[in-house]
Amino acid sequence: MTTSPDTPTPPTPAQEPLGPDDFDALDQALDAMREHDEEIPQWEFCEGFMAALICTRRAIEPTEYWPVLLGDDFVPAQHMEFIWNWKRRWREIEEGLDAPVETLDDERSWQPEVLDTRGAIASLPEEERAEVEGEEIPSFAQVWALGFMYAVENWPEEWTAPRDKEAAQMLDDALDNIVALTEDDKAVPTVSMYSDDGPPSVSQQRLDDFGAAIWAVYDLRQLWKSLGPKVETIRKEPTPGRNDPCPCGSGKKYKKCHGE
């Protein structure tokens, strides 16, 4: 069969967006790791951490970030399906952040994978809700924002404000918008992000803050891409005068030794 030049090439498995089954596989992999290390985070935290890595000024290598996120005992070769899905999600986020979108309704835009845990609990039968009563339940997108800022805090030198005042202000404003999501949503809930007919669990202010945080990540990605990696200053040792002692320790004057 002849393929027309205008026929789009089907995406390879590595390019296909992650579906519910893929995110379930990520959750299951993290659950399995948590049996041996209770500090292993939830996927939403990993999702925020990944977004920050993609925006960081210097490219952080996996060998550098895996111990920070998943501990010193994490061996990538033992978790190949997790790594495969991680790389696919990484590509998705990069493509979304680099797409020339003007609205988050654009199908090319990046959308963080976040949970409305409070909405999920509110939708449970009363006897099941009673089992978690009194527990601290994170707000919508709060865990994602904590994951993002965890990466920022672990590589502070890569998030140092640039000298340009306008760029520095852009950095501060963007990080402030993300930090806002690390706080509890204490406003009156008006909508459920868990289900269309679920009881209200998220405030309108939270949704506005969430949108601002997404655009903040777009700004951070573009900011560091435009500035590029830091250029290290090379400090050259001063050259001794011709009549100064040679720094090699020979006891001769510089002009009679290494200065010849």
How would you describe this structure in keywords?
single chain; 260 residues; mainly alpha; 9 helices; 46% helix; 2% strand
Task: Give a short synopsis of this structure.
The protein has helices spanning 20-34, 43-55, 62-70, 80-98, 117-122, 126-131, 142-154, 165-179, 204-227; strands spanning 189-191, 202-203.
Order of helices and strands: HHHHHHHHEEH
Count of helical segments? Answer: 9
- Total DSSP E strands: 2
| Major β-sheet profile | 2 strands, antiparallel
Average predicted confidence as pLDDT: 88
Proportion of residues in β-strands: under 5%
Percent range for helical residues? Answer: 40-55%
**pLDDT < 50 stretches:** 1-5
Straight-line N-to-C gap: 77 Å
Task: Kindly provide the radius of gyration, computed on alpha-carbon positions and rounded to a whole number of angstroms.
Answer: 25 Å
Overall outline: elongated
| Spatial strand sequence of the major β-sheet | 1-2
Structural class call reads mainly alpha
Q: Could you please describe the fold and organization of this structure?
A:
46% of the residues lie in helices and 2% in strands. The chain has 260 residues and is mostly helical. A two-stranded antiparallel ribbon has the order 1-2. α8 runs antiparallel to α9. The chain starts with 19 loop residues before the first helix and ends in a 33-residue tail after the last helix.
